[in-house]
Amino acid sequence: MKTVRLGAGMAFWGDRVRPAIEMAERGDIDYLCCDHLAELTMSILSKQMRKNPERGYTPDILDLLRGTLRTCVANGTRIITNAGGANPRACASRVAELAAELGLPSLSIAVVTGDDIGQDIDGLMALGVPFRNMDTGEPLATVRERLTHACVYTGSEGIVEALGRGADIVICGRVTDIALYLGPLIHEFGWAPDDWQRLGMATAAAHSIECGGQATGGLFSGGWADVPGLENLGYPIAEFAPDGTAVITKTPGTGGRVDVRTVSEQLVYEILDPGAYLTADVTADFTNVALEQVGPDQVRITGATGRPRPETLKVNMGYQAGFIGETQFTYTWPDAYAKAQRGISFLKTRLAASGFRAQGEIVEYLGWNSMWQSCLPVPDDPDLPEIVVRYAARCESAAQARKVFTECVPLYNNGPAGVAGVGTRPPLKELFALWPCLVPRDHIKQSTDMLEVRDGEAA
Amino acid sequence: MRTIRVADLAHGRSGDKGDMCNVGLVAFDDRSFAILRAEVTADRVKQHFGDLVKGTVTRYELPNIRAMNFVLTQALDGGGTMSLRSDHLGKVMYAWLLRMELTLADASAECSS
Questions:
Q1: Which of A3, A8, A136, A355 is the most buried if burial means most Cβ atoms within 10 Å?
Q2: By residue range, what is the domain housing residue B57?
Q3: Do A222 and B20 touch (CB under 8 A)?
Q4: CB contacts, 8 Å: B46 with chain A
Q5: pLDDT tens across A243-252, in order?
Q6: Can you say how many angstroms the Cα of residue B87 is from the centroid of all Cα atoms in its chain?
Q7: pTM: predicted TM-score of the whole model, two decimal places
Q8: What is the mean pLDDT of chain A?
Q9: Does any domain span residue B80?
């Protein structure tokens, strides 16, 4: 029986590169699948591209390829990535340069685009696409002037086409994480685009590995102290059968563990209704997914199914939403909590006097309630050794947000006794909000372009 | 009667989708899963998270892996990109659910251990 081995090489922009290198060398993989894009990432990348048309992709792909490309080409392992982000073409040019630098005689690079609808919004609205906010029902006009980008979560079609045309590496923009895995499977097994059963089954397996180390013992809460070798965590590999079921394993000789518990925990990560896991390619149903330990670090996944894909695609639209101003200070025993209250009131009074305006604010006591907030009682034990206060506010402008630290500084010598740790001015955090909305799939067309590199030259 | 925590029955993980947070629980064994099903209802979870969750709580089940998934809406102060919270992505919301106390009749408590 033919099987296809897909490795999860990267789970987010900035993830470790070492696991992909080990996987390329020792994982016996057919494809290295790399996800670089989180919800917020496209906003950041779009902003970078507006500043410099040569940027807008996640540069960590170059680090990854520097360590894996030679091995992958030698072993016939093909690479699928969405590191193209807001600028897949620029990413492909850099990859071509890297291939030349590494002395590769030839490389076939595919660029999959079509997800970026930033320039088409007016045209699509004229065709009757309202881009209404899915959560609030508000019209797009509310934020239209502040949009940073609009990208559609596109499916696997472009990847399948690229592989059919012989690509060694496929560079995409905002395709879904799942498409990075379904693309090579459809190409290898020849699944029909409406083979909902196989696509749904494979989606469950892909979902369980797409966050890299979270399937192999990273973040594992069911006995965290017993996971071996976290410092050298191996990333997951799924060996797929033609029916879409798979055996989840990891690179030999690496840290971590693959068992029913580690995989179960990842299966329930970032899902909503498990009966309707929506992707651009299929509506997967994880309800009856089953796991079985079939060997050391080997778990078979079966039981998932699928239904027709949604007629609409989700759009990742972002808009500028101001800045967060933030500060932190520590009060000590005695009466740490009472002093902290006085310090917070000092800060708020000074902010009000400075004409400060905020759209929201928060006070957290680090080490006590910064994770679960009001679920916990106030830490008012007068004998408490210390209390760390974090204050943060959402502001319309950078100037407003800067006031938070400015007005906090006098706590150094004008406030209650026993304060430390005000520190130096922290960087402002720019806010990008998401505008979740839908677009009918008929309006979205992916394109696949090939960039052939021969003896260091683009051909 | 005996009081235990959800952590005695299950492990978990949580994450974000916009302003929604999902909390998955995976029971250690069949008996623990049965107790979770009976005791850890959507209503109780909503109550347990208090002001942290402004919206609704819905519970789903994946019985073959003894898991349940709770979807919490308006749970992240506007979502990962907007939230002022230190845990803006809801990464440790699962641990608050594992801390939830359950008061059980002696028989079921014994079976769970």
A1: A8
A2: 1-74
A3: no
A4: none
A5: 999 999 999 9
A6: 16
A7: 0.96
A8: 97
A9: no
